[in-house]
Amino acid sequence: MAMQISKKKFVTDAELNEFLTQELAEDGYSGVEVRVTPAKTEIITLVTRTQNVLGEKGWGTRELTAVVQKRFGFPEGSVELYAEKVAARGLCAIAQAECLHWLAVQRACYGVLWFMMESGAKGCEVVVQSWWRTPVIPATWEAEA
User: Where is the signal peptide, in residue numbers (predicted)?
Assistant: First the structure.
């Protein structure tokens, strides 16, 4: 019985992650953390632009909370949604992929490598693929021990 409950939780978390990925794509969404307590369920979204998620006077989070409650069947008032800024943007792959958007390929790759080196990464590999370019453009760096 416990196995079914944990499977259901994982499926619900994956569906919530997929939903938030679609809703908050332009706000730099990079992950979600769900904390369940007996009274409330706290959903903490990790984004690069928190002001876009919050909206004017908090309307963005209120609307998103209402949609999550309705779609996932939470009781009224039992969900709290928070937007948290990504702490180490240089070490978050999703945030770095967002930075690549609309930039020249070579400039973008080396910009990402530089930013990751400054953030303290031990090594990095940036691979850019596209249907209209060569199949793979790799740019690599490894810290010397």
Answer: none
The domain spans of the chain are 2-85, 89-142
Question: What CATH number labels 2-85?
Answer: 3.30.300.20
Render the chain in DSSP notation, one character per residue.
Answer: -HHHHHHHHHHHHHHHHHHHHHHTGGGTEEEEEEEE-SS-EEEEEEES-HHHHH-GGGHHHHHHHHHHHHHHTPPTT-EEEEEEE-S-GGG-HHHHHHHHTTS-HHHHHHHHHHHHHHHT-SEEEEEE--SSS-S-EEEEEE---
Q: What tens digit of pLDDT does each residue of 107-131 get?
A: 777 777 887 888 887 777 777 766 6
Q: What is the pTM of this model?
A: 0.64
